[in-house]
Specification:
homodimer; alpha/beta; Rossmann fold; 7-stranded parallel beta sheet; 3-stranded mixed beta sheet; 12 helices; 14 strands
Chain lengths: 328, 328
């Protein structure tokens, strides 16, 4: 099978490419070709047995998606997005890439015609939800995003469902939890601290905690996120019925529980590298974020996290990103 | 104030124009100008004390909305849409008018800038909901449309909320129940029979009932729909918070209750003009439609129907459309 990843240069895209290279198969189908697309040229994964091609371009230009689809990929994983903070600051850019880019991709699939009906895996986000909501958000809860990014993802979900209903492609949308521990440098995303307070202390560096320890949020490891994508790519979508978008499983953990788990895994000393520096602006933003999901449908359909506790989340980070060791 | 109605040639648009002409004021503001826009030139209302201008055009062309906004209307009522059946048959046309047309209108408001921030009243529909759902649909229930029309309305709701949150305009979306009794000729809409079985017998004509009498649906009169629009146009939108889209109140009535009410208002003889002719295709479509809404938020915010029973719905039809009499 031929796999196309749109938005392949990001953290998830790179991990998914590497995983596909390692597997060589997806379900019972051998991967014969991988096309990696992004606004900057993605790096091909090491050690792939299949042919990999990399393409750089702008998904919001009318001729980009038709060219990507010329070889009729069997599976399209659409990860590309302007992230939350940037989509909020640059409204035009967010709508152009996240809404128009997605629609151009979906319409280009439709334009192929001739019975072409690929699987489309769309990464949505828990940002489609906005406060007020219940402590535990069920699968039937209304989508009322409080950012333009969340709005654009919610529109993507609606288009995905309508085009799938019409048989234009076989779509599935997965709402990823906040990815923790996110590898790489600390960034200025309001959600960055959830990962910073684990990743930086384990690397011997100081991290800033801008909120109180009772802040609760919904987490999954990068490893689980890749597992969700692989399952979405190969599962029997007939089981979805008409509801093609799913909130993914995760762990609901408070910041205090995160820090306690870090102490248990890495020792009290490591947690002393967390500096409390309350930031009212970040506290206000985070107050509007979801804390926990039921994710019953996703679990029933076979989606599951790799981790069972926040200790597992930390251990997976140490295994996958730090070669098994940390700075005590 | 200057009022612009987009989609003014339809049934609701014509009734709203006539009502504005009769009122002369909206809340505490005098109406000084009314602009009526549609794809065919709308008919200006009789007896208006204010200046009325009529414009015909295509809302999906890039220069249409900017020209309509040149005079900076204070209130924009956006009713224009390709209806459900046509949007399903002609996917391009539905997306072009219902999604692109709406977005072009909203973006044109943004492009005016200079502190321009009109009230925008957007008519959405209960078609944003799709089965399965509970017997009574609450205000927090997820939107999973099962038609392209419902999808396009749901996207309109999301854009309306995001642009309002950004302060681009002051938007409110109202999800209208099925309008009953809809005046005019019987049409081929799957929902047509809900009105046909009342309107045609009262006019001495036969009507076909394609479903069983236990089918339950959500109704409001044209008079109530105009009341909702007027309230949305003048209410304090600060009370909405970030959730700008509301399910409107209505009456949940079974077809059997409709017929029993017709017998009480107009006599058993009139109901004998209803011919049962089961249609499996229509029964399947109708099975996916909502039956009843809680509409608690809308009621708390002052939206209310004119009718308290289905007898009232029939009496309002006789008053407003038949000059007070019917054929017994």
């Amino acid at each position: 099978m031929h796999v196309l990843i749109v938005g392949a240069a990001g953290m998830i895209g790179a991990k998914l490419s590497a995983r596909l290279a390692g597997l060589g198969w997806l379900g019972d189908r051998e991967i014969t070709q991988l096309t990696l697309f992004d606004v900057i040229e993605p790096t091909p994964p090491a050690g792939a047995a299949f042919r990999t091609e990399t393409v750089a371009g702008d998904i919001s230009l009318a001729d980009t998606a038709p060219r990507l689809l010329a070889a009729r990929p069997d599976l399209i994983v659409h990860l590309a997005a302007i992230v939350s903070g940037e989509a909020e600051l640059d409204m035009d850019k967010g709508y152009r890439i996240n809404l128009d880019g997605t629609r151009l991709l979906l319409d280009a699939i439709r334009a192929v015609g001739e019975g072409y009906c690929p699987r489309v895996v769309f990464t949505s986000s828990i940002a489609v939800f906005g406060a007020p909501f219940p402590e535990l958000i069920g699968d039937d809860y209304v989508l009322t995003p409080l950012t333009s990014y969340g709005t654009q993802k919610a529109v993507g979900e609606l288009l995905l469902a309508d085009y799938s209903r019409r048989g234009i492609f076989d779509g599935i949308g997965i709402r990823l939890p906040t990815i923790c521990v996110r590898p790489g440098k600390p960034n200025k995303a309001a959600s960055g601290f959830f990962s910073n307070i684990i990743r930086e202390p384990l690397a011997g560096a100081e991290a800033v905690l801008p909120v109180s320890e009772d802040v609760r949020h919904w987490h999954a490891t990068p490893r689980s996120a890749i597992g969700f994508l692989l399952h979405a790519a190969s599962m029997d979508t007939a089981l979805l019925g008409t509801r093609r978008n799913l909130s993914m499983p995760g762990l609901s953990v408070s910041v205090g529980e995160q820090i306690a788990a870090l102490a248990r895994v890495a020792g009290e000393g490591v947690t002393r590298r967390i500096r409390r520096e309350p930031d009212q602006a970040i506290m206000r933003i985070v107050a509007g974020w979801p804390r926990a999901f039921e994710a019953r449908r996703a679990r029933e359909l076979g989606f599951d996290t790799e981790e069972r506790s926040f200790e597992d989340i930390i251990r997976i980070h140490i295994e996958d990103e730090l070669g098994g060791s940390f700075i005590a």
